[in-house]
Write a structure and sequence with these properties.
Structural class: mainly beta
Order of helices and strands: EEEEEEEEHEEEE
Mean pLDDT: 90
Number of strands: 12
Largest sheet: 9 strands, antiparallel
Shape: globular
Distance between the termini: 46 Å
Number of helices: 1
Strand order of the largest sheet: 8-7-11-10-9-2-3-6-12
Oligomer: single chain
Length: 138
Amino acid sequence: MKITTRKKPAADYSMHDMSVASYTINGENLEIRLNPGLIKIKPPCDIVEGRVELEMVDWDCSYAYVINLKTRDWDFDGKKYRLDEFIEKFNGRKFNILDECHGTNIIKLSGYLSEGDKINECIVEVVYMGNLKYHTEK
């Protein structure tokens, strides 16, 4: 019997508990700027100024979900956006990332999106075929 083990990707930085300051689309690539920056997760741990770049984004398979909890009975509504439409509509709005999940050629960010005086749950899924790059000042 052949056993194949998938190695864990080694990440030096995390977006967990950060806020998205802005998204920038550069052709096939997506840049995510964070406020106050990225968390350096290898010692010495610190917050460093930086941004994330995802190369060769598959815009046809990348989506964002904005979910509004309406009542105490767990009734909710929401909307699914193509990622480029989501960026056009919500760029500059505060998105607090509470969870970051990496898979094969996909990153999933979930948290809360502030929309005026409303706070909605938000999930952003980015499918990309290139590299995930962390650009930092240090």
